[in-house]
Amino acid sequence: MTLPPLPADARVLAVDVGGTTLKAEVLDGRSQVLATGVEPTPLGDDALGAVSRLGSRLIDQVEAQGHGPVSRAGLALPGIVDRASGVGVFSANVGWRDLEFGPPLERSWNMPVLVDHDVTIAGWAEWKVGAAQRCDDMFFVGLGTGVAASIVAGGHLLRGGLTQAGELGHVVVRPGGALCGCGNRGCLEAICSASSIARTYASASGRQVDSAADVVSALDDDPVAAHVWDEALSALADGLLNVVNLLSPRIIVLGGGLAGAGDALVKPLSEKMTARARFVPVPDIVCGTFGAQAAVMGAGLLALRGAAED
User: Fold this and answer.
1) pTM of the full predicted structure?
2) I need a surface site. Which of 76, 226, 291, 306 has the fewest CB within 10 A?
């Protein structure tokens, strides 16, 4: 679905269905946040009801505060997404298959709902208004519950042919390695996603942690944390070096929750890639402007602009 851009005084609902958390905001035409909400993401088909209720609550809140009506929504979904029909085709992390989002949410919220892939529009947002502005060759990596990418080449957002482009997380970098949610072994997502890092640390140390952020905070004092982190970044460096050799982007932007590690992520990752590079130079590697909010920002821009286009 493609719609005309909205005027500057419009208000839109933006929702990011993350593998762990639902994030939603109501934005005005200047991308100023009028209301926000966060909830855990239920597994399977229950995600649809949770999205509907969260969005309705924020719409009612904004309208009750006198900001005026919300006229359109943007929805960012993980996994394989059918944008045209508004269907979540498959998500290994959340556990749905062929779950219809667009039409039921349009009925629930009484407004048009534009649906897109979460990491694609997260990278699109970083390209248009974030860390990669004015750069027409960019590679964005979303490092959260899963791992995926958004690709801009020659000033064009690449969508893919048979299905969507950017499934970096399911590139095998350690054959025979850890089991991935997709059923394969040694995928990048099974090693260096935030959820995998926390899970690997718990298995190696015998200590449960709430998130990968706990592993990062222990790097200076915990040799197990340092080893798990080093292995994850080595796998990520191998995966991204293949990207550099194939696409030669001018910049790599790191997003998602794991990008909150900042220099503890960027510096060793860049060093590992530089040590491995032979033919194509390693580009600048930076953390995104929007961090873990990139997909919800992308969903808001999608609603405001009517389409995620070049």
Assistant:
1) 0.94
2) 226
